[in-house]
Amino acid sequence: MTRIALDAMGGDNAPVEIVRGGVEAAEKLEDVKVILVGIQAQIEAELAKYPKAVETARKAGRLEVVPASEVLEMDDEPAKSVRAKKDCSINVAMRLVKDGKADAFVSAGNSGAVSASAIFNLGRIRGVHRPAIAAVLPTRRPIRPLLLLDAGANMDCHADWLVQFAIMGSVYSRAVFKRTKPLVGLLSIGTEDCKGNELSKETFPLLKEVKTIDFRGNVEGHDVFQGQTDVVVCDGFVGNVVLKTAESLAHAVGYFLKRECFRGVTRILGAMLLKGVFKSLKQQLDPDIYGGAPLLGVPGAVIITHGSSTHKAIFYAVKAGANAARNDVTGLIARDIAEYEANRKTL
Amino acid sequence: MTRIALDAMGGDNAPVEIVRGGVEAAEKLEDVKVILVGIQAQIEAELAKYPKAVETARKAGRLEVVPASEVLEMDDEPAKSVRAKKDCSINVAMRLVKDGKADAFVSAGNSGAVSASAIFNLGRIRGVHRPAIAAVLPTRRPIRPLLLLDAGANMDCHADWLVQFAIMGSVYSRAVFKRTKPLVGLLSIGTEDCKGNELSKETFPLLKEVKTIDFRGNVEGHDVFQGQTDVVVCDGFVGNVVLKTAESLAHAVGYFLKRECFRGVTRILGAMLLKGVFKSLKQQLDPDIYGGAPLLGVPGAVIITHGSSTHKAIFYAVKAGANAARNDVTGLIARDIAEYEANRKTL
């Protein structure tokens, strides 16, 4: 049984959607145990909404509540507050992973707070300079999501860090998305080798030397959603801006379609006939089903989902956490990072 | 009469679409003269397709051809080749501006080459550290386009440069888009003052001190398409990646809709009923009508349009060039930059 410590208090829709998603995961996912972590009374109140599913899951040992006495508020300064609030749900859940009582961690809470708690409680995988958040983006090809990292854990990066991001992203793509030979791109402003800023130009030749990745050179913003690359690396400032801009544009398109399709009877009829198209567009633009962003480089499967996560996003995030744990992402990263660093020393 | 030097040889669709757009501009825009610059025989061959419009425009002194003996190829290294090919169409057209024979310059050629030629031939406006490309993006609000700069002229930037980008973008927004009080945002990863990378954190307090702009603080990628800001500043690496990623996503959505809407009779019927919606979505996502990206900070109205520009994009770019020239963007930038730099020295 793969045990997932689920932060019941994190995110805009906590605890309602988190508990619901957790119950669904405990009910439907094979060999998964969901450990809900947070204010016990609030969690139990939510669990009471699904008496039958909860009873079945509890009997099968697939659902548990672990109390946490504190909650991080959205306006708490993330890094500081995870140190100050020792018993907040994020820390309590993270310690379950540290102590071997859970195999993976899932939260829709502040990504800065989760990253800080992970590094504070779990430390880093040996040899890893900086853990990175790998955002999972949909592409033109439905079955080929893209890992974009770092998506916001590290602002000003060194070339060495980006190289490790490429190694860690490749491991995740192979282990979890089952890409046998994930293609790695370096985000830049042109596909020519010489294009870019100081960081990307310094990173380029280093990536060419990494034996465990399949580096395909620079990729432009134009290429991101084309589905030709599996892992794209950049610093966390660029990654975060790209990620949020893309989300913003997708929302703007959705907003526009919704507004325009209800203007007049003809359009409403047309929209009804195209219901399937809009539904599948929404699904394809919806990153929820890819299961949230793993924090790579910490010794433990840590999944961060969107602050606005619904029960569905939580369900898939629990699934992603279970996948990451079962496929030993941590062990594989440790191996590939050690191999790379050993090779570098002998050069 | 505002005279526009139009590079007839630049872009994927040159000279066909460029000449067509130029003729349309000469025909329809008030008080505009179009000077087509490039290989004369090729331009004349294209002009021969529109005998009536060309004859009328020529009689009215609104269309002229200025020959250039060389053309930049796409694989030429931009900065180098504008120095090597002294008589390429970009340089010849730029010199018309320099020599006072044209009031504005328009090209769909390589943006690096245009920027290099502009700086090489025109120099910089006094006090400007670095000219910047200001991309014009559509937002949720149709009448409120956003200027994003730098969109790719300068990779690694200093805080001082970003401050000037904000000043120059505000001038353009006021002069050309007629925003009376353009709101300026600093692209970052969170709206809190303290969020960002080293560059943005250094830039933030400087922007607060600029008297000629209305600085509203950090904006996230989430805010870009919301239409709440008129000018967003960032370094040219980030700006270029954001711009191209957004284009990539918009294309992916268009591709998806096109593919799905032709699957079965019901959907085709629905798509027909929603024809107006799709058309207006396409228009709204289509940056062509905003008339290309001005290169701000050089003494002259220089407009760079997309490499894939059609005649329509060229038409609007000529219009934008005329607007920039008539509204004396150069003079206003010179004034505001001088004022800012004088204020700084007295501090």
Q: Summarize the amount of helix of chain A as a percent range.
A: 40-55%
**Total strand segments of chain A:** 12
Q: Which two protein chains have the largest interface (Cβ within 8 Å of the partner's Cβ), and how many residues from each?
A: A-B, 57 and 57 residues
- Extract low-pLDDT stretches of chain A: none
Number of alpha- plus pi-helical segments of chain A: 13
Strand content of chain A: 15-25%
Largest sheet of chain A: 7 strands, mixed
Mean pLDDT of chain A: 91
Strand and helix layout:
Two copies of one chain form a homodimer.
Chain A: E1 2-7, H1 16-28, E2 32-38, H2 40-47, H3 51-59, E3 63-67, H4 78-84, H5 89-98, E4 104-107, H6 111-122, E5 132-133, E6 135-137, E7 146-149, H7 159-175, E8 183-187, H8 198-208, E9 214-219, E10 231-233, H9 236-261, H10 265-273, H11 275-285, E11 293-296, E12 301-304, H12 311-326, H13 329-346
Parallel strand pairs in A: 1-2, 1-4, 2-3, 4-12, 7-10, 8-9, 8-10
Antiparallel strand pairs in A: 5-11, 6-7, 11-12
Helix pairs in contact in A: 1-3, 1-12, 4-6, 5-6, 7-8, 7-13
Features:
347 residues, alpha/beta, five-stranded mixed sheet
